[in-house]
Prior knowledge:
The protein is α+β, with helices and mostly antiparallel strands. The chain starts with a strand and ends in a 7-residue tail after the last strand. It is built from six helices and 15 strands. The structure holds fe (ii) ion. Residues 94, 98, 100, 111, 243 line the site of fe (ii) ion (FE2).
Amino acid sequence: MAHVRISPIHSSLGAEVTGVDLSAPIDEPTGRTLTQALAEHLALVFHDQALTPAQYLAAASVFGPPMEQHYSQHNMADFPLIGLIWHRNGQQPAEQWHTDHTNRERPPAATILYGQEIPSAGGGTSVANMRAAYLALHDDERRRLEALTTFNGLDGHADTRPEDQDRYGKPVEHPMVRTHPVHGSRAVYFHISKATHIAGMTPEASRAYMRDLLDRMIRPEIVYHHAWRKGDVLVIDDRATMHRAHGDYDRSQSRVLWRIIVEGDRPQLV
Ligand SMILES: [Fe+2]
């Protein structure tokens, strides 16, 4: 096993991993260490990585099988399991707090981002610990959320391909509190713009309640802000966090991240 070191970088979540070269094959004990570290720390940072698309996909597979991304118009031509996050192809930075691809029956266990081109200032990614957010709620609200489910679909980008709409636009129901399959803890789980509604509530009331939850739950002390350096790999545990991009950078500069999502379990509350 490589000399892996996992060092927390924030009081609530996030750890830096050193001693792993993601361009080389990852042995099984190291892979287990990394998946356990992700479940515990919820965000892992690897600096100074130099990866080809194929090496990046191989490394990401340690966290689960890479899955297709539904906005396929932004996927890398030769490696369609890698999505390009790049404002110059018409995307807006995803500044709303969210977790990824909740319109899938088995949504991603993790979102993995690799910094290719980084603006000189701004353009960071923030990650919020929704396990801590759940624990900070009052008992009665925790019980209320544990009884609620969301219905999820695509969130309607104008350039969505019809085939993606057909494959990934069907309603999928998920609990608003889910148990982490590795860690065993609970976290608040929803995507405010992919959730069409909460079961038993109107879309308007659902949206207002989710907005209110985000405003109350995501406090600075449970947020790790990642300021990108070229060559960084950031692994985000989608089962117990939300994340957002920051659009506070000069758009004449380039910000390019390669994104892989890896399949996880069907969310459940146990
Ligand atoms: Fe995202």
